[in-house]
Amino acid sequence: MRVVIAGGGIGGLSAALSLHAAGFEDVAVHEAAQELRPLGVGINLLPHAVRELTELGLADRLAEIGVATAELAYFNRYGTAIWSEPRGLDAGYAWPQYSVHRGRLQMLLLEAVVERLGPRAVRTGSRITGPGDEDLLIGADGINSAVRAHLFPGEGPPPWNGLVLWRGMTYGEPFLTGRSMIMAGDGTQKFVAYPIETGGRTLINWIAERPLDGEAPDRGNWNRRADLKEILRHFADWSFDWLDVPGIIAGADAAYEYPMVDREPLPYWTSGKVTLLGDAAHAMYPIGSNGASQAIIDARVLAHSLARGDLTAYEAARRPATTALQLSNRRMGPEVVMKLAHERAPDGFDDIEKVVPHAERAEIAASYKRTAGFDPASLNERPSWSVTR
Length: 389
Known about the structure:
- This protein is α/β, with parallel strands linked by helices.
- The chain is built from 13 helices and 16 strands.
- β1, α1 (10-21) and β2 form a beta-alpha-beta unit.
- α1 (10-21) packs parallel to α4.
């Protein structure tokens, strides 16, 4: 079986590795860019994605480039705690959660693909827009996918919800556990921070989010430079006892602007010898740290389904699950606790239990884990998607 993958991002490279592990030898990744470089900023890999990379034999390499996340914590815009929970091994998972630089992860996957499938397995400067003479074309070419456009012509640009994300990285002091991921905000304006390097210095990945006046430029372009002074203007008074938000923003060498866009859920992903994967199939708001993780899971389920000779099983397993996740992220996913706290106590609070009771907060967190497929007990007990040869 000859397989062509359009797109050399995290999803496409994970698909190549998964297919190879499942016994498919004739696999080629075609990337439109002339060169694959370690671009981007930080992302999180949740335990369900780390499980898949571990089963692909990449655990040690991943541990070398990632910071094992110990805690996820939510705060209001005054820095007062709303909810916190352990993550990764500390939460009872059999696999860690990692905060990692997106580009370093992509280079790790690229290196593994070249080692296992050979140097000709990845072909840069090669844009795929539709099927050719391969047996299967996998569209893993992102939110502005040309392969998706082949299946659904005239869909147009991704819809925008009026918010903008500003993203950057800054060397700074450790905060909270030293391996915490924090989100502070009020449901409209938000600041996120977590370390992606620790040791001699801590490299903090950060995201600032708020409504944007006017029309959003370059929808789906992660590399548009932003003005740090403009970002600081909106977060100048967000200085907490435990985190200096303005100092972190000001300390970045550069920041990037990204309108918050997603794609409408599709009625199908597969037509003939073409199927979709990752953002090409189900681009979602970057809420809940799920974009890259879901693409990796897609790759593993697709390879497992193909090895059993049943491509339909891939879409049957993944499309309903990711559609539910897309819609949940439009409702703010687990981050809705910040919105609830603000609506019920806009001037702050002394006792969160009187504002958003523990049972309500716990169910919001647990419900999202179930929707996204990383409920601890279910994930730990689920059979492997590895194929025995």
